[in-house]
Specification:
Elements lengths: L14 E10 L2 E11 L4 E5 L6 H8 L7 E6 L2 E2 L5 H8 L2 E4 L11 H12 L4 H14 L15 H13 L5 E5 L7 H17 L3 E5 L3 H7 L2 E6 L2 E6 L1 H5 L4 H7 L10
Parallel strand pairs: 3-8, 3-9, 6-7, 7-8
Antiparallel strand pairs: 1-2, 1-4, 4-5, 9-10
Helix pairs in contact: 3-4, 3-5, 4-5
Bound molecules: adenosine-5'-triphosphate and magnesium ion.
Adenosine-5'-triphosphate binds next to helix 1.
């Protein structure tokens, strides 16, 4: 797939990952990842536990640096950018981490206001307005003054989304948005993700090993295996891929990449 603009000209990628290699303590995790992410798409990366999905996502936002290879965001190479440009590129991203990462000692309001207070000159009144907008987008109006511990797992996850979108990012990264949630709550989270994609001019990259969820939210799916992207396709095409590993995944019997 190579999308074109209204004049039929090729659209440049939002993110291009080129021959990305990364090892930790002698263990080679990423072994030449190549991946193109188009503007406005919802790309879902699937793969076994320990395959390196979170490591790949953290490279996109510059939280982990590659041993070699390139991450190009809107034509700019993260590795070559001056420190101020790096910060500006990072500001294009919002991320909801696998670990959740809400500040437990802060109210929901202060959690979402945190990036706004830190990175913008907005007044408290403007911040309050933006916090309300973000909570409305994730269907959580009215919980501003609660503490994270007073919320259910699904609600905390949505507060994490609200914080990730507070600065109106161009790219949203979700690491396992459904993990640990019951199927009904997981489906509700997927609906919030789809709504965000439809209401915001945003490019989304989501990691999951939940195939039901992957098919619900993906414009394209990519399979990470043995340190490489071994397949990328739109959902219907992905289902038909003959690769036994992909088929194992689809059947709900993923082959583990490693024994933890
Ligand atoms: N900061 C780090 N230091 C050392 N090793 C790391 C680090 N981060 C990740 N790893 C290792 O890299 C490998 C891939 O980890 P990663 O968290 O990306 O897997 P994953 O595909 O996200 O798995 P899961 O589905 O369980 O979340 C693992 O072996 C992990 O131990
Ligand atoms: Mg992970």
């Amino acid at each position: 797939m190579h999308p074109t603009d209204t004049n039929g000209l090729p659209t440049p990628p939002k993110i291009a990952v080129i021959d990305l290699w990364k090892s930790f303590g002698g263990k080679q995790v990423l072994k030449g990842v190549n991946l193109t992410i188009w503007p406005g798409e919802s790309l879902v990366i699937v793969g076994g536990s320990g395959a390196g999905k979170s490591v790949l996502l953290k490279h996109l936002i510059g939280l982990i640096h590659p041993d070699s290879g390139h991450i190009i965001v809107d034509g700019e190479d993260l590795a070559c950018a001056e420190p101020e440009r790096c910060l500006a590129i990072r500001r294009k991203f919002g991320m909801s981490f696998q670990e959740g990462a809400l500040f437990d000692s802060m109210t929901v309001f202060d959690n979402i206001a945190f990036p706004l207070r830190r990175h913008t000159p907005m007044s408290e009144a403007e911040i309050a307005q933006r916090v309300r907008e973000c909570l409305a987008l994730v269907h959580l109006s009215g919980v501003e003054h609660k503490m994270p511990a007073q919320l259910s797992g699904g609600m905390r996850r949505r507060v994490g989304f609200a914080r990730a979108i507070a600065l109106k990012p161009e790219i949203l990264l979700f690491d396992e948005p459904n993990t640990g949630l019951d199927p009904i709550t997981a489906a509700a989270i997927d609906r919030v993700i789809i709504e965000m994609r439809d209401k915001m001019p945003v490019t989304m990259v989501t990691i999951t090993h939940d195939m039901t969820s992957a098919f619900r939210i993906a414009d394209r799916l990519a399979m990470l295996r043995d340190g490489k992207i071994v397949a990328v396709a739109p959902p219907e095409e992905f289902r038909q891929l003959p690769d036994p590993y992909v088929q194992g995944f689809l059947a709900g019997q993923p082959v583990e990449e490693e024994v933890a």
